[in-house]
Design goal:
This protein is an alpha+beta fold. 30% of the residues lie in helices and 20% in strands. The strands form three sheets. The protein has a five-stranded antiparallel β-sheet. A four-stranded antiparallel β-sheet has the order 9-10-11-12, with helices on both faces. A hairpin with a 2-residue loop joins β6 and β7. The longest helix is centred in the last third of the chain and has 21 residues.
């Protein structure tokens, strides 16, 4: 049985108190909300904080505001996001993505902020300490070699968030609070294509909320590939958001691929331009999918073969647009 190491636990009541505690303890401390990703990694000694800063007592992190769009507290559980009537009505793709994370019991504990910041994954990293030690460790933790591609100068672990591709496709922003103040950035700016240092926010910063702009008139969906229908992380995620005019012609489109790189992959505007001013016919969808899947470059470090995951990306893009055309 894998056991948690010894650690101290503190439960601040305010954001300012949480940030101050983190700053005081530096790299020896980590924030924790639901803990569904952190605690297993502590058991495997992939993360080794001496102090955990529990966020469950901070009311602001669970707040929900409906105004110019909606603002979701980062501490809202994935179950709460899934079941929220406003999110289901105005942003159904986000509710769907949250509902596809892990299992019901873990969605009851895990938070949307935690899923946006969930650690990258890799076959050579997500193992017990003894397994990794026998291998010689890897670049992401305790080693200096990426076993996926030994000549790679960076870690190739895979982005594994379900909600991130949807939030990016919907043009969401996040509010970060740290010792130097607060800042608001687009969700896509939260990530970089490095499996080891996949977040651009500093460890001292706390993700406080997610703001979704109004999306009236937009149609949207999220599709997820995994071996089992529950529990598993995505090995492909496709988030699509399309705005259609009254005559059915597309006036705007955003599509984001998840789990095919160390960060969510946003399709270029040049690719999306194929849809603008046109109706989503089966022929157009097939042409678009044929071009849109090419930026997906899955590596051989998750479930199923990389060649299959590359090919099925095209299929899932077509399915997502077909679903939107029928909404």
């Amino acid at each position: 049985m894998l056991r948690l190491p010894v650690f101290d636990f503190v439960a601040p009541k305010t954001l300012a108190e949480a940030v101050a505690i983190k700053q005081a303890h530096g790299n020896n401390a980590m924030y924790v909300a639901g803990g569904t990703d952190l605690y297993p990694k502590m058991k495997r000694r992939q993360m080794e904080p001496q102090v955990l800063i529990g966020l469950g007592e901070i009311d602001e992190l669970r707040a929900f505001h409906n105004g110019d769009g909606v603002t979701i507290g980062a501490g809202m559980t994935l179950t709460a996001v899934t079941n929220h009537p406003t999110i289901n009505e105005q942003y159904p793709a986000l509710a769907k993505a949250a509902a596809l994370v892990s299992s019901p019991s873990l969605r009851n504990a895990g938070t949307i902020g935690g899923n946006l910041c969930v650690d990258t994954r890799c076959t050579y990293y997500d193992q017990t300490f003894e397994w990794r030690q026998a291998l010689g460790f890897c670049m992401k933790k305790d080693g200096d070699l990426c076993w996926v591609a030994k000549s790679s100068p960076r870690c190739l672990a895979v982005s594994s968030s379900d909600t991130a591709p949807v939030a990016i496709a919907l043009g969401a922003t996040v509010r970060l609070v740290g010792p130097t103040g607060e800042r608001v950035i687009p969700v896509e700016a939260l990530y970089q294509n490095d499996g080891q240092f996949y977040l651009t926010k500093s460890p001292d910063e706390l993700l406080v909320s997610i703001h979704l702009p109004p999306r009236a008139g937009w149609r949207m969906t999220y599709l997820k590939l995994r071996r089992r229908g529950s529990i598993d992380f995505p090995i492909l995620g496709v988030a699509a958001a399309v705005k259609l005019a009254e005559d059915g012609r597309c006036t705007a489109a955003r599509m984001v691929l998840g789990a095919v790189a160390s960060q969510p992959v946003i399709l270029d505007e040049e690719v999306n331009e194929m849809l603008i001013g046109r109706t989503l016919t089966p022929e157009l969808i097939e042409q678009f999918a044929q071009k849109a899947y090419r930026p997906a470059k899955p590596m051989d470090n998750t479930d199923m073969s990389l060649s299959y995951r590359k090919k099925v990306t095209k299929v899932f893009i077509a399915r997502a647009l077909a679903e939107i055309s029928e909404q």
